[in-house]
Amino acid sequence: MTNILIVDDDSNILNLVNIHLSEQGYKVFQAKDGIEALKLLQQESFHLAVVDVMMPFLDGYELTKEIRKNYDIPVILLTAKDQIEDKEQGFQAGTDDYLVKPFEPKELSFRIKALLRRYEKDSDEDILRMGGTIINKKSYEVQIGNRTMILPLKEFELLYFLLSHPMRVFSRNHLIEQIWGIDYEGDERTVDVHIKRLRERFSKLTDDFHIKTVRGVGYLLEGNRK
Length: 226
What we know:
The chain is α/β, with parallel strands linked by helices. It has 2 domains: 3-125, 3-Layer(aba) Sandwich (Rossmann fold); 127-223, Orthogonal Bundle (Arc Repressor Mutant, subunit A), CATH 1.10.10. It has helices spanning 11-23, 34-43, 60-70, 84-93, 105-125, 153-164, 172-179, 189-202, and strands spanning 3-7, 27-31, 48-52, 75-79, 97-100, 127-130, 133-136, 141-144, 147-150, 170-171, 209-214, 218-223. The strands form 3 sheets. A 5-stranded parallel β-sheet has the order 2-1-3-4-5, sandwiched between helices. A 4-stranded antiparallel β-sheet has the order 6-7-8-9. Strands 10-12-11 form a 3-stranded antiparallel β-sheet. Strand 3 (48-52), helix 3 and strand 4 form a beta-alpha-beta unit. The longest helix is centred in the middle third of the chain and has 21 residues, at 105-125. It starts with a strand and ends with a strand. The mean pLDDT is 88.
């Protein structure tokens, strides 16, 4: 079920949105101010937040900034104002969309559906599949069958990059620039060490992919998508 957080100090708005979204199958959580909303965010997993701008204790702009720092969910700001300066402040805070009061519940619903589709698409792009191997860039997890592994950061980034470009040969210098950055002061042996570790980790676990050495050039990942 999709969890929606509604934050507004107007109980009438909370009730109206709650009824409308609940009828569409969403599970709605309500908060009357930003402080209460932050507590709910720590307790539950949400897919989207609808946030009023004018609230006591912590206003919508500040709450949106806090959400952006810690949670990867879309935010819709609600406001009674329709000034370009307010919209600018909202987008600078990190909101994804903006809805002016009074609004039709159907319009809010349309905007929620559009943002959920967009975020779902972005989320899919962070997940790579190669046969029975799934690599998730958001959680830095590699799943092979029922086994889930969390790799050291650079090993993960190297594997993710190679899986993103199967059957392409990359030089050691190119891999260093992509994974460690152009300012990295180490040498090419760093790549060799990390490739060796990846081979040792996965060679006995799966045949979905193999990292091959192209003599005199670098490495390529050969995959079996099945």
